[in-house]
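Below is how a single chain appears once it has passed through the pipeline. First comes the sequence as given, then the structure the pipeline wrote out for it. We keep one example in the README because the format questions we get most often are answered faster by looking than by reading.
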Amino acid sequence: MTGMQTRRLFLNRLDPAPESHDVVVAIDVLRSFTTAAYAIAAGASAIYPVDTVAGAIHLGKVLPDALSTGAIAGGDPIPGFDFGNSPTALAATQLNGQALIQCTAAGVRGLSRFTHARALFAGSLVCAQATARAILSLQPDEVVFLITGEWVDRDGDEDICCADYLEALLRGETPDPTPFEARVRHSDFGRRFTAGTNPNLPLSDLDLCAQADRFDFSLRARRENGRLVLLPETVTS
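Resulting structure:
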């Protein structure tokens, strides 16, 4: 990581964004970008992040063959969408090349704020090593980790630990992923899944989110035809 600087921004703190960024990783482990990764693994051709429900519904009319996934703040599904923000649901689905429109209260909103970056990634623990490889291939001067899961009632440690893991990988270290997986489980939001009191926060989602490096692709956000789209990217070391 010689010469590469890293820093962190927190979506909930509304840090003023500078005019330009080099590489940005918007991290949402529970669950937006983990859900997105499982959707790609299930055969989704592309994922279109849209930061408002109205915008997602409009895009659904433009792309009538696309399916929709999303949740409101707290994790409840958006009424009328095909899927909630659930990796369990997507992992059990065969998408067979269909596109997916994604709308979430934290991850997608955070991603949409940094579309001006030279390179923009949707970060999660399940794609961490692949994301680090993709970042290193760009030889950036600076990498910004955007923490989206910190709120007044949540410590956001599931995203902070992902940033810690990514930073170690970028330094060329080979960290044991087990402690980072445990931090996802024991974060404030992670404990809501283990409590078993909300059917929209199933334990199976937490289990899928806390599996470091399950996939060999990163999720890179690009602009295509004026729309933000997440596509898998595989970089071999």
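The longest helix spans residues 157-170.

See the next section for the split statistics.
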